[in-house]
Protein 1
Amino acid sequence: MGANSSSISELPENEYLKKLSGAEPISENDPFWNQLLSFSFTTPTNSADLKLLEEATVSVCKSLVEKNPRTGNLGALIKVFLSRTKELKISTECQNHLFIWQAHNALFIICCLLKVFISRMSEEELQLQFTYEERAPGSYGSECEDLIEELLCCLIQLIVEIPLLDITYSISLEAVTTLIVFLSCQLFHKEIQRESIIHKYLMRGRCLPYTSRLVKTLLYNFIRQERSPPPGTHIFQQQPDGGGLLYGIASGVATGLWTVFTLGGVGSKPTQQLEQCSPLANQSLLLLLVLANLTDAPDTPNPYRQAITSFKNTQDNTALSSATPHAFQINFNSLYTALCEQQKSDQATLLLYMLLHQNGNVRTYVLARTDIENLVLPILEILYRVEERNSHHVYMALIILLILTEDDGFNRSIHEVILKNITWYAERVLTEISLGSLLILVVIRTIQYNMTRTRDKYLHTNCLAALANMSAQFRSLHQYAAQRIISLFSLLSKKHNKVLEQATQSLRGSLGSNDSPLPDYAQDLNVIEEVIRMMLEIINSCLTNSLHHNPNLVYALLYKRDLFEQFRTHPSFQDIMQNIDLVISFFSSRLEQAGAELSVERVLEIIKQGAVALPKDRLRKFPELKFKYVEEEQPEEFFIPYVWSLVYNSAVALYWNPHDIQLFTMDSG
């Protein structure tokens, strides 16, 4: 770049950057700043472009890291930015493109420099980079102003107070990104940060009063999904005199303007994916998740988490309680729509999990919706495409289902919602099926995938817990859903027999040899028997509570009745098998009385008639199956690395060298 350059490769030799990172202090009133900030380019929108930019400017950044403690040029740049943001709101109202443009450029440079500083030094060392203040020799002034707090507070004010327009989109995005960069110290520590300097600034002092407004603004940015304006519209329009995208600036600055450049190359077209996404919505959601997962201070709970867990619907007329600090109101209908539409991303699923788990107002609203399928279907598709998703995304989707199935009203209503032509379900053409039956199919498919691939007990447990919560409310199960329930039991039965056979053979082999240790087949057998027990309890729960509503399940049970023989006398299953054995015997007898060669329709008719005739008091009552999701102790040990892996992998407007990352390994995202 520079007065006559147009290539990123020439940035290290740019005279303005060399002066900024040089050995001479630059006063914040120096005309140099107008020259430095008078450049225009298409803001990088992906990590690949930012990697190019960072590699080109690494020598400049290293020089500034070394010399800034003596020159204070970073502080001077920040003061220039702060002074320009004081009039940013007026500039927006007056459509003062020039003023907004230079403020954006100042913040862009600050953000790029901060990212390098934070990756190379501790927070204490970073603080020193902000505390330079020029004094006369031998003088001892009062403590210098706290530039970190002032900059953080300014960024928050910019996000919450500047209206989102085409001309302010870039600076709003840059403010959100810079806050993420400020918090990125966590990436360079293996341990969870609990005493961070930046956290303290954000959770108390001048930033604290803006908590609810910041959370609300970030949520609305996510809800609105505003796309980035076309390149050029947010800076300058073509001038009538053919002067191009750049103006001349007063005081003769025009002769020192940096040439327009585009990281992707002049005239390059953005990809279709970038055209369709909203960088501001994405970054706002990531910042929201980072803030919500900051650890509590010893004397102060995380105010951003308090805001997220307590906000209410704009339709709720009850007064905000003083007992819930940082509460606010937001349009739940708009939020619900955005959550339904954005579930393809990990971060949107994580937000949905947080709101359902921690905000009772949101959970009550969601469960009362009459179009719950709009939310549940995207969650089911995440589970269905388990091979394409990372394990954390699958877990979050599954836990969301578990939370929803804790509600009996939800479990009833999903069987009343009839869906047509589920195109993404490939195993079988489903022209018409209830949401409840589809949910059962997808959860069972997830269990079967887990049995053959990942073998994760936690995944098994949560899948079975969701099925168990629903089992008493099973209604009019689709024949394919009923078949899959019994097929899963068949698979478990075969697995049980296989492990049992291996254990027997191993024991026989060990009698002739004392050298090799025995595999722990007892533990494997114990796990598989726990799962079988759970499946029998699910089937039993449906039979005892809603047998007359589920002729297809009884049909599938009778068709595969031989599967259950081996478990009738098994000590682990005898009690739960009583009801299942009774149902099989009762309906088998009625079918035998009806004669041979019965059609499917006739069998179902006999089952329906028998369901009415079967005395309910003959079925033994068991405790209701109810499982409640409980977050693990110290959830931050899971959620903080997860959130930062999402930031790292986002590929929008941020890039970090993978060799510098300490918080997680590169395959954990």
Note: The radius of gyration is 31 Å.
Protein 2
Amino acid sequence: LQVFDDEGKDVTPHPLFHSDPNAIGPRQAKLLASSAYSGATGSGVLSSFSMHQTSGENASLGSFSRSHLLTSYNFSDVQVRQEEIKEELTKEDLDRRVDIYLTETETIWILDMPSVAVSVESEDAGRVLERNRIYVDICKNRPGNDRFVEKMMQTINGAAKNKEVQCDKIIMEDKGTMATSWDLYDSFNVLEIKPTSKAEGSRAITRKSSKPHTTTEHDQTMSVSSDRGSTTSSITISESALLARIHEEEECHSEAILTSENFQQDLFFMERILMENIFQPKLAAYRQFPVLIDPDLISDTSGTVAAMKEANQKEQDKEKDKEEQKETFIDPSILSDVNKTLEEIVPPRLERLWSYICDLTAGHSVSSMAWSKVNPDLLAVGYGAFDFKEQKKGLACCWSLKNPTWPERIFRCEHGVTALDFSMATPNLLAVGMYNGSVAIYNVQSCNDTALLDSSKSSNKHTGPIWQLRWVEQDRGATGDGKKERLMCISADGRITEWLIQKRLDCTDLMKIKRTGSEKKKLPGEKERKSEALISQQAAGMCFDFHPKDTNFYLAGTEEGHIHKCSCSCNEQFLETYRGHKGPVYKVAWNPFSTDMFLSCSADWSIILWHQDSQTPMLTFSSTTAFVHDVMWSPKSAFVFAAANESRVEMWDLSVSILNPVISCFASPREKFTSVLFATNTDCLLVGDSKGAVSVFELQNLAAPNSNQV
């Protein structure tokens, strides 16, 4: 079968695959395939092949013989066909004219990448050059031309790729200096003034001599001298300005050195070293270390020599006593009697070592003291007045043994500080209670004196002075939370509160102290009195103390002279009420060893020893007619406690006497003792007074009994 189109051309499809490989010749053999398979003997189309032709018109090759066409291409496949055709064709067929049409097939573009470069010899070279020239002219005339308008269009941003390269750390340093234009001008002028002046003088003379002789020699001399005079005056002015600027720069440089952080740090360490040298004997006595004396100072100071001689003599006497005791065997009971006799001969006393005081704290009354739970050498002291008429701004200072002359941290408060305490779980937090009823928490690690948290924005804050606050660890084993630290406060508004430390300070009431009537026995024949109307249903809280073993129980002292035993689990009623004082109770303190006993002091001049199972006082101590502001048990003995009266500080040892204190230290005139605090790791006592001083006393010759003995 053959397929012809409308023009009569053979468009029969040819197979793309031949089973006989020998039948397929080179690719050029397909030129005559159509005529071979068609079987035409007359005029016909020999072949139709595709060829790239730009004009796209049909080209007529004219009349030529089939044999000449076949031999001219010299194809092996076509030659075989020629022999077969020669046998069939006649002479007329060979002489007949044959028309061959060459046509262009459809072009398939696989990749079309227009060129951006044109050959100089091409036909489009002139047109491209003209377009480039026009574009350059447009770019030149574009700025400031109203005919051109800028438009924005959005394009697609290509996907970004992140690449990481590992290299050594690059250490960079910033260095710079500041110089004004006047500095540069003066510096260059000073460097070039002298050589330039001589050169200008010589140049002026040379130029005048080289000119025609229109001026006289006198004029030349005058001009030179005037030039030199102006140069000398300019040099003098610039030198004076330079010296003044150098002086100012030296002052600025010295001021920068004095205010630099490195210099301040060096001064800080130097101050510590000097304080250690000055207070070395006192600090050694505080820590119960031997006192070191510089041998270079022995030859200069006669007093030091005498002290050394006395110390050596005492050591020799002690050694002799020891040798005599070794030589003579004495009964231990006799030795104890001898020691008691020696104690009676050398009574115990308080030896003052130093005082924590500076110009900043002078004139403020010491209201409270607290040791850091982690650093036993860090002491926090609160300064504030107890009287309403004497109120002024308060202070909370942190003192260190390394510098007794100036506090390490100073926190200024708008109101007087009445109580403070360090946290146990977070030792850098210091809670401060103030006279106006606010509570603030400071970070002692930071040099910033602003409070981390403040209760000023709390809607449930206290309305009276906070007389005492404490961080208390309570066991929450029943709820599975373990031990949790809480901040407790007692205030003059009659509330005992627990503060919640979150993003801000807020509190919940643990107990509202209600007023209780005095239990007066009715005499026979006495009429019943009408009950007095109470101004307030709540009694002002003055102090509290949590039980050392079970912090769920605590004691609360009130302004009416009563002591209430309370429980954190019950906020409606008191467990016990102890009545014995006739005035406000300033302090209550559990015995750390005998946990059933506690002390209380009051404005009625007395100190009372209580047992928690008895509502009647066990012992009452009253040695002077003065308010007892503070009382504290010794951390080393169950029998020893210290008390601060207005006129003196007392040391009581119940194993020695229950009538009189074993040590009494009197206050200076116009001075009142306000608080006491035992040192945690040494035999020393700290006493605060109304002048802003915290005196450190060493307990000497006080034979405290064993702490296990109760």
Note: The two ends are 133 Å apart (CA to CA).
